[in-house]
Fold each of these.
Amino acid sequence: MDKNKKMLSINNLSIHYITEEGTVAAVQDMNLEVAEGETLGLVGETGAGKTTTALGIMRLIPEPPGKIVQGEIVFQGKNLLDMTTEQMREIRGNKISMIFQDPMTSLNPVIPVGEQIAEVIILHQNVNAREALERAAEMLEKVGIPPERIKEYPHQFSGGMRQRVVIAIALACNPKLLIADEPTTALDVTIQAQVLKLMNNLKKEFNTSMIMITHDLGVVAEVCDKVAIMYAGNVIEYTDKKSLFTEPRHPYTLGLFGSIPSIEDDEERLNPIKGLMPDPTNIPSGCPFHPRCPKVMEICSEKVPKDTEVSKGHFVKCLLYEE
Amino acid sequence: MNKQGQKRGPWREVWRRLKQNKAAMVGLAIILILVFSAIFADFIAPYGYDDQDLKARLQGPSMQHFLGTDNFGRDILSRIIYGSRVSLQVGFIAVGIAIAVGGTLGAISGYYGKRLDNVIMRLMDVLLAIPGILLAISIVAALGSGLQNVMIAVGIGSIPGYARIVRSSVLTIREQEFIEAARAVGASDFRIITKHIIPNALAPIIVQSTLGVAGAILSAAGLSFIGLGFQPPTPEWGAMLSTGRNFIRDHWHMTAFPGLAIMITIFGLNLLGDGLRDALDPRLKN
């Protein structure tokens, strides 16, 4: 497979939420790329703009208050932002699909799981209800649920099982791009590993590109090829997995690694990043991270950092590295 | 566990819980008996509803006429049995009209929101501002009396109630993650409303409609009582009450039995409605 074939590229994307209390720049001037079969990790704290990015790609931002202010999202050579509602409906679930965070709430409680999987198949493929249900059973089997349970309702499944059902729905039409919005956050740790493994295997089997949204660097280490670290709507570091773990550059990324407990060292306390995420309606001037940054310089509160390529394919938004 | 599990749909659960509620089952039994007598009135009723026997006018309950006869010598029991046909028809069809119109308006209003919501709900407020019986009277006065017009009149009066209930459930359900998930698989608005939102909003609609049928039967009887509903010789309970009123001093049975029929029907529907509300309450799941 041609690894360099572009599946999705996001160029200069900005998404704002315009409310009475003020404008929230949920995503600021974002540039990302996902190649075929590749997994991009989108990492950041709650409120960093990860989910907004995902919804933006799906064109599911609630408008108003949300608004895509500028930029383009190019999927298979076409700008999704230029598409009509009907064209987008064709793409959703078929070419791009999404796994939501909480499997307890993302399944319809009054419809048997089989029908919920069949729904996406009926919507996008030219099959009748019976064939769709047959395929739904196949999908269930693929995600490791006995196909006999096809007529059961979501409340009869455990959290991990439900997330498997959600994955089956997402992959039922063999999408080109899968957006997973913290798919393991709501699951307990032992199930997390199973679900991640399952996603990884299916992704390889279908050669699907994936955007994995997470705040867990462990998940990144397990599944991602490339990583984008987000802070307050900005992608502040963007590189491949290996250089992220071996030579992180941005002070925020360093802080993230610093706050992970180490097995070897005998530490009394963790080293969290000082301070809190800024109020989204009132983001600090200059570099949004400067009030918390241990390496803050005078210029940081004035100048907005730009993407700097510190080594090939490794971008950092930090004035430390700007010429 | 699997085999048993497969049958446990949410509606089966509700039925299981409803069965445990004795009062609700009594209500259901009353309704079923009524439905049965309405369907098989021709076989059950000892006399026809307009068979006059002028020699036996105004007789009290006896072996020939269990519930007595009226001022034309018609058998009251038979008229009550035939009357259940009219009452149930009015009750269910009026509520059906109200659910169809009110439910659709409420769903549109709740789902799309904004200006459309405002326009629809203010129209509903206008309807709500007029007392139900007054509205029904004016509609019947405008359209003329008769079964069909009474159903329309009573139905229109209860549209706002359903619109509000459906709207409020749609408002909460629309924000749920599975609706976003449905959108994310490419479902259209129509499909989301009909397949994902309405089935989840059914519980309050069902409760309201059982109680609503009772209300509709009462309204129709009320309309007939004041002479705007059904014209004689239609065996309508409210109309029977109205005729009986003139003889109430000497012939209590002419008003008492139709009145009891109305009361028991409303009682049964309310018992069932309350039971359904409990059975459908998600907080009581066990």
Amino acid sequence: MRLGIAVDSRMCMACYCCFMACKDEHCGHDSALSAAQPMMGQKWIDVREWERGDSSRRVKTASVPTLCAHCKDPACMKAAKDGAVYKREGGVVIIDPEKSKGQKQIADACPIGVVYWNEELEIPQKCTMCAELLEDPEYLSYLGDRSLVKPRCVEACPNKALIFGDLDDPNSEISKLIASEKNTPLPGLEDEKTLVKWLNVPTVYLAGTVYQPKELDEVLPGAVVKLTCRETGETWQTESNYFGDWEVEWLPKNKNIEIVIEAKGYKPVTYSAFTDADHYVDMTYLAKA
Amino acid sequence: MAEKITHSICVGGPIAIHTVDGVIRRIRPVVLDNNDPKGWTIKARGEEFTPTRKLQPGFIAMTEKNRAYSYDRIRYPMIREDFVETPDGQNRNTEMRGKSGYRRASWDEALDLIVREIKRIQGMYGKESVTAMTSSHHSWGNVGYKLSTFARFFRMLGYTEVKDNPDSWEGFTWGGPHTYGYYWRLGGTEAFDLLEDALQNVETMIMWSHDPDTTRGGYAGNESTMWRHWLNDLGVQFIYIDPFNNFSSVKQADKWLAPRPGTDAALCEAIAYVWLTEGTYDKEYIAKHGHRFDEWCDFILGNGADRLAKTPKWCEAETGIPAADIKAMARRWASTKTMGGSGMRGGFGGVCRTANGTEFARTMMLLFAMQGMGKPGQNVWSGSTGAPMDYDFWFGGYSDPLAQIANEPIADKTAVNSVTQKLYRTNLPEAILNGHYEWYGEGFCGGGIDLEFTEHIYPEPGCSKVHMFWRYGGTFMGTMLDTNKWVKMYQSSELEFVVNQDIHFHGEARFADVVLPACTNLERYDIGELCNSGNGGYQSHSQTGNSWQIVVFQDKAIEPLWESRSDYWIFAETAKRLGWGEEFTEGRTELDWCKRFWEKSDLCDRISWEDFTKKGYYIVPVPEDRIRRPGFCWFAEGYACDTPNHKPFQEEGKLGTFTGKFEFVSESLLYWAPHDEARTPIASYKRSWEGHHSIKARKYPFHLISPHPRFDYHTQHNSSTPWFWEIPENREYINGNPYLVARVHPEKAAEKGIKDGDIIELFNERGSVLCVARVTYRVEVNTIHAYGSSGVYNPVVPGEMSQDIGGCVNVLTPGRLMGDMVPGMAPNSTLMDVRKHEDCLPLGQMFEYKLDKVARG
């Protein structure tokens, strides 16, 4: 049995429940596996967000709760001396608060920046996946059902953006979710087997709006929008909707994309775009053919 | 070390509290166990929907431990160090309020002083010379709530009541009843069973000035967020209309339309124009249910008095939204089953707090009427209320007169105020400073449309002015308007004596002569139901904003911290010293009062007191064979109204207007206020008295919008919970001060030389506030967005009307009411300018200024 967490970015609305529950559990409280998190400055689960888009015509945000991935082959463990970082049965990675004293390189080694350096105690610190709670038979015994016991962040999530369960059981909720959704490991963890899996972290979109000739003040639904990446040979096709809007998500990053917008009775329009970031291509006013 | 688990409800939702040796260890959501009942199921479009077996509090609830032990708790009774108890109430250094430090006092000293002052002032001037005012939702619980304990004390004492304005739904209270009735729901509609209707039928959702993931159903936490995911996954299209691409919109919107602030009524008119010219509205429904529709059509089409056709092109110039997009929006609405509304209960939202708020509220309701409001999938319903519930189970909510310890049957004897004089919250400073104030209205006016036109004059003939002010609950510096006028009021010698009773030493407490430390509701007993604002009180059955209906025994988790005491203890002790302690308590402890609520409600038929207090909560099951009573359907379909909380005329198929119909020309306004220019008989867009057409706009070209906060509840959390300052969309902690985020469009930021993360100054003739810039495409180009209700108020020179660094943007908002006869506030009609702050930063004051050494002990 390997217990893990799936982080579904699509479902995360950045409500910060996970963040606060984690702080509530760990700030100011030593546990069997960790020293207390300082009251300020560390984010064992950090809701990382960025704005997507370069126009008020189309703007979204991405939200990615980011916590220790509990790697199979952890960079922090390799950097540690004297066995200061170890793996428990099941794979949870733990930093020993005593043996790790003075070992700042453990914090620096993390590829996703979730191991924090405690200046006061001179120790590296991070998420324990609340393993100390999960194995405490007294904790939540009043509920009478061990399956209700989850890491604090998962328990606090109102949105099924954090799912906890057995990665080795193909019928568990978490395994089914991982099988059905886009697996999007964080940069730096692509080749790593982890207990925390990130799903649906967006790449890049291109979007625009198609209008009839400007003087008509009318949108143009049903225009065909074709995208081509010559480098990879991939193509995408969509149609403008009732607002004249079109959008293609999940484009590969840092590619040149050619765009053709066509509608019967109108002259086609072409664009080229580069997917370095999300772009609103244009308000396209088609001319009559 | 065994953990004790108790439960409570706070404004962020219900919580489980773990304590170890009398100290709170952790705060968790309430997870249902296998003995709790099944949740409701809704079948729709081939799927079954049922809630997760866990209550879903908001993130603010997860910080209740932190807030209880917060650095800025008021720990001891305190007396202003330069306060002098002069026998005539004069020469008390009142101009030093807000500036002076405090000395620690004992409870005896503080309460004896208060009692001496009450006796002196009421003896000298009359009972009405004492006034007192609460904040909203200070702490959840039917015993401690302001309409319960506070009301009991002050009604027994006799005092000048300060009437609240409907600060979160102004336009709907002052507009809605004149268009479609529902004055008893304060201008909001009914949402009974509409979640099921929506899941089964709706195709388009209009989220107008609505950020449900932020306003969290009022007090429902995140109970409804999953419903909107369900709708999303069913392919329902979400159109958000808001000058700020708010936190729900940016995640969910299929389309975001950004009108210039305060021009939404113009957008309503242009949508109507499209429907009228294209014939795409429900003509049969309007013929049956509309009153004087033809006159309104004339007005929209350009045949009215103003001879102006409300075309999409005209609307584009007003709102900034392209005419083509307006037409597309109107056609989508007319051609698909569309539900929507403004704000969390359909009748809230920031637009209703603009100068044009009533006119927006009315025209939006008329649009829904034109599409057959009440038919399946076509209704005012904004996605955060209307879950199935057991309407036959009654437990009182906070606004239920039957669920307050001030009244029978909870009390043996109802407390009655012997003073008739009143004050009005928004203009309390004017009344105090000028010694005279006149206004229309009667608070929330839930008792009838006529109440809106009640004439008030202060002082009431034959009455004295007020000279003592007892302030109770969280600070208003960040929620009321034109903050600096409150500073002036506090420093006036007209107020001879000021008491502040609060949990935390927030912005307003530091203007008092005596500060009394109240405890949180984790430190005392109470009882309450999640998100129940009152079944029979106003906005009845707001618990339909929850997935689960839950009544909680709010057990005392820990003893009151430091020398804080419960509000009930404070009032009971004061009453005792005034000589009527026994009458106040009726011999009951707080726990006894809790039991009275159990005994006087349906709860006692469902669960024994022993089982209830042991388990800590009761989940009200929804019957599997529940009867569906979809809101407003009775009106559309023409059967006798069957929804809860209805009036007799609804059984005849009538609305609460004069004619019983949707009034496109309002008969009630023609009767009471035919010449009012702010709110005309024909609801119509009007240029704001502080908007882009104002002369002032040449000097102050930006609109400030300051909606209800995502990262707070009223003003309760931000000052006390430094964890909030680590949320980049909320604040940035720089140089000892948590600067509030203000959002600027990249185009305007470039013009002003502002970069993301810069310290910027928001300013107008009323004051200035330093914020930290977020440069973002999420705001309309002429708009600055900064959340209102700042929990931090931190003027650079304490107690002066100086620059604020706490993010209290209400410093900039106009104190003006919507209209002469429309006593609503309009903070979202604010003009201002912005510039990069080039000077060095003021030194942070968060910790130094808050509590002086003596008070910290």
